[in-house]
Amino acid sequence: MSEREDQPVALVTGAGRGIGAGVAVALSRAGYAVGLSARSADQLEETARQCPGPTLVLPADLVGAGAVEQVVDRLEQEWAAPEVVIANAGAGVSASVEKTTDEQWQLMLDLNLTAPFRLLRRTIPAMRQAGHGRIVVVASVAAKHGEPYISAYTASKHGVLGLVRSAAAELARTGVTVNAVCPGYVDTPMTDATVRGIVEKTGRSPEQARAALEAKQGINRLITVEEVVEAVLACVRNGGITGQGINVDGGGLQS
Description:
By secondary structure, the chain is of the alpha/beta class. It has helices at about 20-30, 40-50, 65-80, 100-130, 150-170, 190-200, 205-215, 225-235; strands at about 10-15, 35-40, 55-60, 85, 135-140, 175-185, 245-250. The protein contains eight helices and seven strands. About 45% of the residues are buried.
């Protein structure tokens, strides 16, 4: 743990790599003391090393019973209640509807929908009392339209966008904003795993699989982590944005 002085506190889940790590470093550069949560302590330590300001490493599997509460409890005990919460932890599975197992379905709901719900439920009261707060859920363009072979993932992301919209409506007059950032395919380890899955199931080359994902964006390339980070920071900085699902997908979905 790094010593915190008077910096405001932020909490980022899924902070070990990819978008979460990028957001954590950006918030640290912006002057926040940042709590970092993910399953891998080693990855969190690497993110912490990249942060110029104070960090608190909080390893946890957020689908576990009481895990969200334990993470926030420790953050509050060591520092203070977070005024910025970035719910980024998530994962995807790929299967046709008829081949999606109960276990896959439940995992997507637990990680992509229930864990963010618990995080909002636990952190909103302190924000409401303070009269200020920023919550950003990293969702997906799959929150807005259906694609084949990712029904469980898509259902969970549609659900979390509904959660964001309802929470934003409840909190609109409190000084607390709630938004979702909805990326397309981003150049991250998660997309690397998607490429491997396409290769295994279709026999395409990795280059062909990646090109197919790039073609889903109107700009014909993967979105960068930095582009998603900038959208998250806009939601943190601008109190006039709330209840939105902001697409960062290179024009693939216009809404």
